Amino acid sequence: MIIESKKIEGKNIKWILRCPTKNDAAELSELRIKIDGETENLDRESGEGLLTPEDFKKLIYEDSMAERTLFLVAEVDGKIVGFTRCIGNKLSRFRHKAEFGICISKEYWGHGIGKVLLENVLMWADATGIEKISLTVVETNTKAIQLYKKYGFVEEGLLRKDRIHKDGNYYNTVIMGRLLNK
């Protein structure tokens, strides 16, 4: 699905919230590798699960056509600095659900970009009739967990020793969900 672009005035920063176009594919591919290498909060290490520019072109096209999928980017001064994808489930028994994740370049943390991406995903999900939206987050990412709780997400489970980080230690993953605001 495609939504209208919005100009956002955040914490000491002005940026644009919009859906990506095929012209963004190469930049998104590079950004994803960069972000994956900046933090242990995401599932991948830099270069793992690589999405090429062609892969992103395909995703952008498919997401723009799908009713229950939303792909948004955050653009500062003509440069994409973060993105979110919310993917609706296509299986009949789970068609009421969607999952999403948010990635923001470390240099843009703390400017409220994640909050705005989250708010727009939730507004879209509610308007689309998605009854449940879920995500996973590493247990040590307490800022993200607090933000999600502020927007109605609850902890639904804990996957113990779910991931191993570069430090060789195991970490837990928190499963969180939010039901449609009716």
TrEMBL record:
Domain spans labelled N-acetyltransferase: 15-181
InterPro entries: GNAT_dom
Pfam families from the UniProt entry: Acetyltransf_1
PROSITE patterns noted in UniProt: GNAT (PS51186)
PANTHER family cross-referenced by the UniProt entry: GNAT-FAMILY ACETYLTRANSFERASE, SPERMIDINE N(1)-ACETYLTRANSFERASE
Name the UniProt record assigns to this protein: GNAT family N-acetyltransferase
Source species taxonomy: Bacteria, Bacillati, Bacillota, Tissierellia, Tissierellales
